[in-house]
Design goal:
single chain, mainly alpha, 65% helix, 0% strand
Length: 179
C-alpha cells in the first residue's frame, strides 16, 4: 500500500520568501568575495612589482632594467609552470582516489564479458594455479553404472497359447506365473 505524500510544514509562500532571501544573501556574499579578491590581488601586485621610475635614466640603465625585468619574468614563468604541474598532479591523484573509492563502494559499471573458448586443462590451470601439473582425465574418475537388463517376455503366437490357457487350468497357470 502506498503512503500519502507528507505535507510540508512550511507554506509555499514562506518557502518562496526563504528561497529569495537565501539567494540575495548568496549574491551579497559573492560580491563581497570578489571585492576582497580584487583588493588582495592589488596588494600582491604592489608587493611583487614596484612601480617603474623611468625618468632620468640613461640608455645603459634602461637596458639593464629591461634585462632585470626579463629575468624576473622568466623566474615568474618557471614558478607558474611548477605550480601548474603540481596542480595537475594533484588533480590526477584526486581523480584516481575518487575512482578507487567508487570501486570500493561497488557501484562501478562492469564491462561486458567476452566469451572465451578454453580447454578444461587450461581452465583448471587458471583456477588452481600451478597445483595441477598433469592433465586430469575426468572420464577415468567417473563411476560406472551397471544397467539392469529388463526381463523380456517371449513373444509367441497367441493363437497357439489360447487352448493351453483356456479353462480353470489356464487361469491357475497365470496366477502361479506372476509372483
Amino acid at each position: 500500500m502506498s503512503e500519502a505524500p507528507k505535507k510540508s510544514k512550511i507554506s509555499a509562500s514562506r518557502r518562496l520568501f526563504l528561497k529569495t532571501k537565501l539567494l540575495k544573501t548568496a549574491a551579497a556574499m559573492l560580491e563581497k568575495w570578489k571585492e576582497e579578491r580584487k583588493a588582495q590581488k592589488e596588494i600582491t601586485l604592489t608587493e611583487k612589482v614596484p612601480p617603474l621610475e623611468l625618468s632620468g635614466l640613461s640608455l645603459q640603465d634602461l637596458q639593464a632594467l629591461c634585462k632585470d625585468l626579463h629575468r624576473k619574468i622568466d623566474v615568474a614563468d618557471e614558478e607558474r609552470y611548477d605550480i601548474d604541474l603540481k596542480v595537475s598532479k594533484n588533480i590526477k591523484e584526486i581523480e584516481d582516489l575518487n575512482r578507487k573509492v567508487f570501486e570500493l563502494k561497488g557501484k562501478m559499471k562492469r564491462p561486458a564479458l567476452k566469451r572465451v573458448k578454453i580447454s578444461a586443462d587450461a581452465m583448471l590451470g587458471a583456477l588452481l594455479g600451478s597445483k595441477v601439473k598433469e592433465s586430469v582425465d575426468f572420464k577415468a574418475n567417473l563411476k560406472t553404472v551397471k544397467k539392469e537388463e529388463e526381463k523380456k517376455e517371449e513373444v509367441t503366437d497367441w493363437r497357439k497359447n489360447v487352448e493351453a490357457m483356456s479353462g480353470m487350468e489356464g487361469r491357475k497357470k497365470l496366477f502361479n506365473a506372476n509372483p
